[in-house]
Amino acid sequence: MTAGVKAQKAAEWVGSLKLGDTAKENRLTAVLEQHLRAVKMYNDEHVPMPKSAHDSLMNGLRKDLPDSQVNKILDKYTVGKVDFTLRGYKAIVPDLTPQEESVIRKNLEKAREEAMDVKNMKQISAVFEIYKTKNEQYLNSNGRNWHELFKAYVNEVKRKKVIVAEEFLYDTAAFPECHAATIAETPGDWWRRILGGLRSGIRMCVFMSAGRRRGRRCGRRR
């Protein structure tokens, strides 16, 4: 990431907040650009980023922004992984309590603040994996069985991926052969199309479409 790209990214992130305060926007952009440069430099050299570089960013953000907007900037670094991962926990544990959700979110926010100092998505995901393990251990210690909960969730997802209909396109077809079958789903309907005729490769073939519209079988010929 070149210096110009870093400056542009920093400006875009600050611009997304729509602050309407040029002086504040300039200060925040400078703080972000400095941190993005540090992330690249220290990660390229394969050495840990000094705490002072991290603290400089956080102090600069908190000086001009409330926590809600600081979080929006931090989410830019980690492409929204906090909320995305939390939604996953809620799907796997539908009866997640407010206390459990609070603990899980705090761990994910710690992961986010740590992950913002690394360079790429693979490294960001590795940081989040550490805190996801902590969350799973917390749920187990809180009377949950994470392994069984996750297994039940996967099975439910698989159960929903079942055949919704199985039937013949035609009771009696008006052509001896067909090929090039396709299927498409539209809102509330689905359609299948085949090329029917005497045989493939000759002109005496037509497209035959069949499907369901509002639950009733229908077809057309082209």
How does this structure look, described?
- The protein is of the alpha+beta class.
- Helices cover 57% and strands 15% of the residues.
- It has helices at 3-15, 22-44, 51-64, 67-77, 81-92, 98-115, 121-141, 146-160, and strands spanning 177-186, 189-197, 205-213, 216-221.
- A four-stranded antiparallel sheet has the order 1-2-3-4, with no helix packed on it.
- The mean pLDDT is 85.
Task: Please name the defining characteristics of this protein.
222 residues; alpha+beta; 4-stranded antiparallel β-sheet; 8 helices; 4 strands; extended
SS-based class: alpha+beta
Please tell me what the overall shape is.
extended
Radius of gyration: 27 Å
Put simply, the count of helices is 8
The unreliable regions are: none
Q: Main beta sheet, described?
A: 4 strands, antiparallel
Q: How far apart are the first and last residues' alpha carbons, in Å?
A: 53 Å
Which strand order does the major sheet show?
1-2-3-4
Number of strands: 4
Order of helices and strands: HHHHHHHHEEEE
Mean pLDDT: 85
